Amino acid sequence: MTLGADTRRPLHGRHAVITGGGRGIGAAIALELARLGADLTLMGRTREALESVATQVRTTCAVRACARFVDVTDETTVRGAFEAATDALGPALLLVNNAGIAGSAPFKRMDLEHWRHMLDVNATGTFLCTRQVIDGMTAAGWGRVVNVASVAALRGYAYIAAYAASKHAVLGLTRSLALELARTGITVNAVCPGYTQTDMVERAVENIVSKTGRSEADARAELTRTNPQARLIQPEEVAATVGWLCLPTSASITGQAISIAGGEV
Ligand code: NDP
């Protein structure tokens, strides 16, 4: 059968790597791409979480799925994990760079360690993983790279200068690489969610409560207020957009930053 010829499973037979696939937005993306028929490699640092999502997609979507330990900032483990993933499931024709961290600090109190850590995980991690898949995608004449950026890739926000800088870097990489690869059959796009209901937002709420002494309800309301629809985005909404960008029919969409933020930007 031709790759993806089954219209209900248009990614059938294609291998997708998702970083940070063990929870939150990454786990929702794993379920969506498996529903579309892709075989999955889930990468991250928490083995049990990755194994649990891999088992879930194998059972519910009848696809192949493996978990691989990776710290996306470590070039050697990244290379090793992609080599092992290719040996197991063939070259990755889809890559979702989702692994990321968030953190806040007033600029005057921001130290170099905070700045470097944000840039390392969010921007350099995206660079290191993307480098591992381009040759295989080029040889196949087909590929999809989707970077999970943020609304903070599109505009600034007070107290998150390092996070916003790292996500702006992801978007710069996305737009430039899309042009560089425009004639290869590979598309490179970014999705830019607003505050999304995951552990990351729960940590942000805890942080506001501990730093300001405000109630949890107040802290949550402050985050929700940034969205004109006055709600948190659900991980499945981000996953559906990633799934759409990965479809064979999305071949002309490249170099884009798709915001999923209720009209915030
Ligand atoms: P979570 O904190 O729930 O998940 C983050 C994921 O990234 C985890 O699976 C984690 O896995 C992985 N990760 C973190 N650091 C590393 C590392 N060094 N190496 C490998 N994996 C790593 O957050 P979300 O699901 O909310 O975030 C996913 C992405 O979405 C991030 O890039 C984030 O910036 C972005 N985003 C999130 C928004 C939100 O409001 N939630 C809004 C906009 C963008 P493990 O710890 O096991 O390694």
CATH homolog superfamily of the largest domain: NAD(P)-binding Rossmann-like Domain
Computed CA radius of gyration, to the nearest angstrom: 18 Å
Mean pLDDT: 96
* Share of β-strand residues: 5-15%
The helix/strand series, from N terminus to C terminus, equals EHEHEHEHEHEHHHE
Q: Which regions contain 5 or more consecutive residues with pLDDT less than 50?
A: none
User: Any idea what the CATH architecture of the largest domain is?
Assistant: 3-Layer(aba) Sandwich
Cross-sheet strand order for the largest sheet = 3-2-1-4-5-6-7
CATH class value of the largest domain:
Alpha Beta
State the domain count.
2
- Largest β sheet strand count, sense and barrel closure: 7 strands, parallel
CATH topology of the largest domain: Rossmann fold
Amino- and carboxy-terminal Cα gap: 42 Å
Portion of residues within helices: 40-55%
Structural class: alpha/beta
How many beta-strand elements?
7
- The helix count comes to 8
Give the overall form.
globular
Descriptive account of the structure:
This protein has helices at 24-35, 47-61, 75-89, 112-140, 161-180, 199-212, 216-225, 235-246; strands at residues 15-19, 39-44, 65-69, 94-97, 143-148, 186-193, 257-260. Helix content is 48%, strand content 14%. Strand 2 (39-44), helix 2 (47-61) and strand 3 (65-69) form a beta-alpha-beta unit. The protein is of the alpha/beta class and 265 residues long. The protein has a seven-stranded parallel beta sheet, with helices on both faces. 44% of the residues are buried. Helix 1 crosses helix 8, helix 4 packs parallel to helix 5 (161-180) and helix 6 packs across helix 7. The chain folds into two domains: 15-194 and 238-259, Rossmann fold (3-Layer(aba) Sandwich); 195-232, no CATH class. The chain has eight helices and seven strands; from the N terminus they run E-H-E-H-E-H-E-H-E-H-E-H-H-H-E. The mean pLDDT is 96. It binds NADPH dihydro-nicotinamide-adenine-dinucleotide phosphate (NDP).
